[in-house]
Amino acid sequence: MKPGLILLHIGLCLGVTNAANASPPNVIVIFCDNLGYGDIEPFGSTLHRTPHLNRMAKEGRKFTHFCVTAGVCTPSRASLMTGCYAQRVGMHNNPRDGQVLRPISPYGLHPDEVTIAEVLKQRGYATAIIGKWHLGDQPAFLPTRQGFDLFYGIPYSDDMTQAVGQRIGERLRGNEWPPLPLMENETVIEAPVDRNKLTQMYTTRALQFIEANQNAPFFLYLPQAMPGSTRSPFASEAFRGRSRNGPWGDAVEELDWSTGQILDQLVELDIDENTLVIWTSDNGAPIAKEAGDLSRGSNLPLHGRGYTTAEGAFRVPTIMWWPGTILADTTCDELATTMDVLPTCARLANATLPDDRIIDGKDIRPLIMGDAEATSPHEVFYYYQTDQLQAVRSGPWKLFVPLSNFTQHPHFSKADIPVDGGMTPPLLFNVVEDIGSTTNVAEQHPETVERLLKLADAACEDLGNRGQPGAGQRSPGRVQSPKPL
């Protein structure tokens, strides 16, 4: 067991029947890849058919201000697993790969970090990850070394194939990348795996895990590979060509089917009222360049694309479902984050949390249960692009801080940058009232700008900024002489 764990005896006196159940709930986290805010019907899509997610929202609770902590895969997943900003755990950027881990990387999530799986195993949970890991492909970093009893899936993104590696060549050791491996625990069982079948295969294995563990508490982390990073996502034969939006729509509609299979099984096994299901995405959709082209997803009505610090990258469609505990057909408009999943699950299970380190996530049980007086537990939320702080949110306000050196600004084009090479002006948006971030109100609210700039300074001291380390940062894991799987 990892050091610094203390027992937290916290009751669930929220006035909702199942919340106080002595039996700890099962937890399922379904984590889509690059699926945008506007890609499913409960969040406004009129293009993709998602009847099972419609049902999930009707029977559960939508979160309209649920944020990830990065606009890309690896750091977003690190935050979910550890309850921390990726900058806190050193998984935001590295000298070899940048912000997204590649095959044969010497870097990965540090073995001393405490994951959701490790926290819940203390309470006797069976734990499984079925899907995409992307927190290190070397043995020391695999899920089986981070609290998971079972790993069935791929170690990194499905677009990191041998063919792509050959095009990259010697850079990033691309010429050594293996065929895309399907793994069971620490063994490659198929290579290359058929990417068209990933959603189907993950669903089948998830159903098997749920059935096998129906009589004991379990944690299932289901990070789907789709819609993914490729320009033409994959889907099984039953779904290819069925949607009105090409391969992207096919992949989204198959994800909806997968979710329906899981919800139906929970009901059939009569464990639905003791199972919390969280459905969300690792970041927003990359979106196409042409307005109106939804072939690479939609973040509407939010502004911006994935891989940035725009709202369209950080705010993701989120639905939580727990029959008998979560109030049906409700919506939460308060700020919550993927970092909150770990501390919330720990308290639901009456498990332990580390007391020897900073955990950035908060307990959001009141928001989940629909407490009428509940507000966001986050005074401030930070938007980083790799190691650069670009924006800060507090309450309804989001401030893009002045920048002088950046590769891509979510709101400025090169033509808009001051010609004298100076700082960009601050941009302040009320992201509650102005959902599309259309109107900069910095001049009308100078006191808010000043307050958020002070919060930004605190973030830089704690989590670092532009190559300057922060006092509260921890190191990533690193191995010598990494080898291909």
Describe the protein:
With 485 residues, the protein is α/β, with parallel strands linked by helices. The chain has helices at 51-59, 73-82, 116-121, 162-168, 198-212, 246-268, 311-314, 341-348, 365-369, 446-463; strands spanning 5-7, 26-33, 61-63, 66-67, 107-108, 126-132, 150-154, 182-184, 187-190, 218-227, 275-281, 318-321, 330-332, 336-337, 352-354, 381-385, 388-394, 397-400, 427-430, 477-478. The chain has 2 domains: 23-369, Alkaline Phosphatase, subunit A; 381-463, 2-Layer Sandwich (Arylsulfatase, C-terminal domain), CATH 3.30.1120.10. It contains 10 helices and 20 strands. The strands form 5 sheets. It has a 10-stranded mixed sheet. It has a 4-stranded antiparallel sheet with strand order 16-17-18-19, with helices on one face. The two termini are 27 Å apart.
Strand order of the largest sheet: 9-8-7-6-10-2-11-12-3-13
Mean pLDDT: 94
Major beta sheet summary: 10 strands, mixed
CATH superfamily membership of the largest domain, which one? Alkaline Phosphatase, subunit A
End-to-end distance: 27 Å
User: Which CATH C-level class of the largest domain is it?
Assistant: Alpha Beta
- Percent strand equals 15-25%
User: How many β strands by DSSP?
Assistant: 20
State the domain count. 2
The percent of residues in helical segments reads 10-25%
> Given the helix and strand composition, which structural class is it?
alpha/beta
Order of helices and strands: EEHEEHEHEEHEEHEHEHEEEHEHEEEEHE
Morphology call: globular
Q: How many helical elements? A: 10
CATH topology of the largest domain: Alkaline Phosphatase, subunit A
